[in-house]
Write a structure and sequence with these properties.
By secondary structure, the protein is mainly alpha-helical. It has a single domain, classed as Growth Hormone, Chain: A (Up-down Bundle), CATH 1.20.1250.20. It is built from 18 helices and two strands. The protein has a two-stranded antiparallel sheet with strand order 1-2. Helix 1 crosses helix 8 and helix 1 runs antiparallel to helix 9. The radius of gyration is 21 Å and the shape is globular.
Amino acid sequence: MSVDSLNLLNFADKKIRTLHVSWIAFFITFVVWFNHAPMLAFMKEAFDLSSQQLKALMILNVAMTIPARIFIGMLVDKFGPRLIYSGLLMTSGVICTAFALAQTYEQLALLRFLMGFTGAGFVIGIRLVSEWFPAKTVGVAEGVYGGWGNFGSAAAAMLLPSLALLFGGEDGWRYALMCTGAVAFLYGIFFYKVARNTPKGSTYFKPRKSGGLEVTSKRDFYLYLAMNIPMYIALAVLTWKLGPGKIGLLTDFASNVIYLSLAALFVFQTSQIYKVNKENLQNGVPELQRYKFKQVAILNWSYFVTFGSELAVVSMLPLFFMETFDLDPVKAGLLAAGFAFMNLVARPGGGWMSDKFGRKKTLSILIAGLAVGYMLLSQINSGWLIPFAVLATMVCSFFVQAGEGAVFAMVPLVQRRMTGQIAGMTGAYGNVGAVIFLTVLSFVDASTFFMFIAASAAVCFTLVQFLDEPDGHIAEVMEDGSVQLIEVS
């Protein structure tokens, strides 16, 4: 099965039309979410920002997405992708416009934090595409959705600096950002009019309870609770980074309030997870309806090193090329776009490999290649020829983005009715990775930063060896209480 075999130009096929409508929505969210990266040089001049303030904006941009992807995943499973995606696009357009009009660094920081909500759009399309495509092609379809949508960050890097210069003046960058916000808002209206949650006559499976993932054993329950901890650690690290003695955006009092709020939220989330799973823990779950939560956990950590590293690198690469090779913002943005450019083929390629050669084998090979790729990037310096530096970034990015495609080729095959929540948690781990990697970057140079990612990938490779290939079917509980077997192979 190949990308071509999906007949991507057959617009008479409703599932193909749905795929195109979905990846364009995701593409727009990524343009909006990462429209700040190629604009950092303009903002640095306009607001006289320090290096630490710029790095704070990078971290803030991915922080909100951690809880947002969990929350959006629940909403998608409950209300469907059509309503949630259109609402997110329109809301993102408004926040983006406000960011473009910001007059102080504090306003920039707050609105960039809120813009992280836009990054949750990815989760919505994962559930939507999985509803329209069978398991034998879902890897390729999810790869096209994710890869072509992820290219939005490259498009922003390539186009927005030139658009800012076209508008001219000291506010050109503001007008460029406002254009992306307007497109997001208008496409949200269009998406609501044309998208549908499922093919006609299909059932949209929903979780029996809301508030957390359903697990099927006590061991999985405790593993689920443990897997929530890194997300809170990432948010606590961000709070510390923005507090007194560091960036200085938060006072001691504000930092302490956030720490206490995170602790309270963890306790509340734990209670909600227990409520959702109380009956299963007390009465047990029939063997036919069980699934292993370790599958979710391993996919989470895989996305931590794949998408987490992509978010971090996309955020810092334009500035890295500017400083390493003494380039202007436009040239640096174009060269840095090479990293995200590979999304067009790499992520669908990772999905295709997963469909054809197996989920575990594919993911193992790609994670290993990712580790080697980042080791190569760690060697880039001003003595390199620029074409070789760009080639190195593209080789590394192939393994990164193909790995992302392999992860989400398997996510819809774990438990269909909870695909939104599983995708949300896996996606959130990508942002946990971004926060951790960008925080490391604030303490070390670029070479050490790339080596740290390579070491993280090596650990993840070991975890992937414990992944199980999906069984042939998933048992889904119907609204009338009956159990239906859904084929996944």
